Amino acid sequence: MERQTWPTSPPSLGPLSGPGAPRARPRRSGFTLIEILIVLVVIGLLVGITAPRIDVVKYRLEAGMQGVGMTLLAAERQAITQQHDVVVTFDVPNGVIHIFDDANNNGVKDAGERERGMTLAEGVVFGRAEAPARPMGAGPVTFTRVVNGLPALVFHRDGSASENGGFYLTSTRAVQSGKHVEDTRSVEVERATGRATWYRYGPPAWRQAF
pLDDT digits over 102-117, tens only? Predict the structure, then answer.
């Protein structure tokens, strides 16, 4: 009589199918509309809480201050590199700084001498509003030299400046309201070295910025 042997593993029945077979759950990808709406609501609440505390004018003043500082530094470097005067003029009513190469050092913009301009940042103007004057003087721009009808600063080829002096920057809101004196900045140039130093007015005193 033969001995019957059984397989070690049951035969495969194949995939289950039919109405009674369990259905595989589809994989979930991305976010649902509800989740996206919740995230947007949270972001909106955070912006609503923090936005009133952000002083946009302050950031514009800082950006304007850095822009003017870099412009003066570039003019001084150019005078040294090209070994001729570079003239910087200040158009106070229009809030524009003009720079031109005075290749023949005659103090006048001649034909062919390159000129470029820089406009102050939005909401930033020349002036000190109600902040007290610095020792350099009270006017918006205290340089006494005049070129093309505008107060001017001249950088020479040795890096020195034409005179000691400077200018004030403040915000339109400070000028219009008589408040916000903390918006006022001062830029002062040393004649011997051409170095520009910045000051911020924080009541009740001026403080050096850089």
Answer: 999 999 999 999 999 9
Q: Which two tokens stand for residue 183?
A: 């918006």
For 169: left if phi > 0, alpha if psi spans -120 to 50, otherwise beta; the answer is beta
pLDDT given for residue 50 in this prediction: 47
CB 188 within 8 A of CB 166: yes
Closest CA to 169 of 124, 133, 130, 203: 124
Question: Of 123, 73, 125, 60, which Cα lies nearest the Cα of 99?
Answer: 73
Q: Is 10 helix (H, G, I), strand (E, B) or coil?
A: coil
- Domain locations along the chain: 56-208
Size of the chain, expressed as the number of residues it contains = 210
* CATH ID of 56-208, from 3.20.20.300, 3.55.40.10, 3.10.310.40, 3.30.1330.130: 3.55.40.10
CA separation for the pair 70, 5 (Å, rounded) = 94
Nearest CA to 201 out of 170, 165, 167 is that of 170
Instruction: Output the pTM of the full model.
Output: 0.74
Instruction: Please name the amino acid found at residue 42.
Output: V
Secondary structure class of 83 (helix, strand, coil): coil
The pair of three-digit structure tokens given for residue 107, joined into one six-digit string:
């103090």
Q: DSSP string of 147-193? A: ETTEEEEEE-TTS-BSSSEEEEEEEHHHHHHS--GGG-EEEEE-TTT
The more confidently predicted of residues 190 and 43 is 190
Query: Could you read off the pLDDT of 7-26 as tens digits, one per residue?
Result: 555 555 555 555 555 565 65
